[in-house]
Amino acid sequence: MENKTKTLPFMFELENNNIGVLFNTLYYPPTYTYAGIKSFMTGTLPSIDDLLRNTGIIDMEMPQNILSMYKKLFSKFVLFGNQDWIKYFPNLFKYTQFSDYYDVKNYKMVDDAMMEDIFNTSKTDEWQVMCIHFCGLDHIGHGYGGNVEMIDEKLKEMDQFFKQLWNIIHSNTESDKPPLFVVFGDHGMSKTGSHGANSLYEIEAATYIFSKAFSTRGVVSLNHHLPLRVKSVDLTSFMSMMGTGQIQPFNSFGLIPEIFEKISKPVDWFKYVGLNCMVIFQHFQRFFSKNDMFITNVREDLKSWKSEMKLISKNPNKTIDKKLVQRIYHRSKTMQEFLLETFIGYSYFYMIFSVVVILMRSPQITVDRILEGLLINQIEKNLIFSTSIFLIVKGWNLAKQLTLRLKLSVMMLMTFPPLL
């Protein structure tokens, strides 16, 4: 399982031809499906609410996200695979086909059943955005472990599927409008096949982003050696700006990854960096005085950026101020690091307090329903609740070793300053 060029030959071929990027995405624990998709789509961190959403205990609809932004540009969304996506993104999909997501012993038919329909749909003009959530690889891990030959076979199968889909779509797409392909895992997998905790194997998953448009932008070489790592929240910024050319969701902490400077036109990169900084700055400035020197410097840089953008609108061939864009990018990076460190805290007090608040907000949630989804695993020697719990999903036969790291709700953190 070490040589992925043998299990994913087509994807590596695209990367070597400079029309794609391959890197590892780092997710924030707890590493389960809802949290991973939310992080990718919204640019926000997991919360106690999300843990309950993953079990279906409370409403699963995503906050402001990439797909809701895409909806302003596209009208035809189709979905294949995990039916929970219609709960994540209600009233979005024009056509859906679901797989038997909850049968973890089914790793072959769960994917095969929808492949032919995907190919047939891809040949039509009945879609503009296609979302596919394959479950087979995840099922192999849960059912048989994370270090079995079936995983390599499944990866080869996925690679061949992607190759066929790539060829079909390009044969039915105008050459001047190449589609964007994004292939990502919403979480990693431990050696035993589980996920949910914060080991490197569980928080890390591969991401592939491909488009023939990349090859037209003078890229010398995008090939690199793993591990190149990108935060999951940062992909939100890329997907927003590359997909719509507009600002990312306002609740996002994402910083557009530097690697994408190589596949962007200089004027576009200048635009993206400024828009990105504006969103991060709106979160950051809440913590400091308006007269703080760093705050003042960011304001001045953004003011200069806006002036430059006005000049660029009049003269698209204007030379980009490279020092300004570098300065803004590094200020954004500093602000993001502060925000992530601030919101990635673990506190048993806030965990319990958050659950109480959720119960108060939603009286229909009973203790029985909470216990149906959550089970406190252990009490540490000092009688403080451990931050590790088991996640038990009703109908699944895998209550085994899904240790999850609880995260503090951003709402709780921003409302109540630390007391302990």
From TrEMBL:
This is GPI ethanolamine phosphate transferase 2. It comes from the Eukaryota. One of its GO terms (cellular component) is endoplasmic reticulum membrane. GO terms for biological process: GPI anchor biosynthetic process. PANTHER family: GPI ETHANOLAMINE PHOSPHATE TRANSFERASE 3, PHOSPHATIDYLINOSITOL GLYCAN. It holds the Pfam family Phosphodiest. It comes from Intoshia linei. The keyword Metal-binding does not apply. The chain crosses the membrane at residues 338-362. One of its GO terms (molecular function) is mannose-ethanolamine phosphotransferase activity. Keywords: Membrane, Transmembrane, Transmembrane helix.
